[in-house]
Write a structure and sequence with these properties.
Elements: H1 2-11, E1 16-22, E2 30-35, E3 41-46, E4 52-57
Antiparallel strand pairs: 1-2, 2-3, 3-4
Length: about 70
């Protein structure tokens, strides 16, 4: 999980991880929520090799945390 978080932060050019979880739709992939310095949140999608496959605006509230945030796998 720590490597996925680091890869996601690097993919969007910085920020703070507020949640990370396995992607329900793909084996071994990750969804990582990042709070950007501008206050916006984005969700970074990584494949099993921790390569970015997509980024989307996060519709969750600013202070929401995903289940499992901060857990290591």
């Amino acid at each position: 999980a720590d490597r996925a978080k680091q890869a996601a932060v690097e993919a969007v050019g910085g920020g703070r991880v507020v949640g990370a979880e396995r992607d329900d739709g793909a084996d071994g992939a990750w969804e990582v929520e990042i709070a950007r310095p501008d206050g916006k949140q984005v969700e970074v999608h990584l494949n099993r090799n921790l390569e970015q496959v997509g980024v989307q605006g996060d519709d969750d509230g600013r202070n929401d945390r995903d289940e499992g945030a901060g857990e290591e796998d």
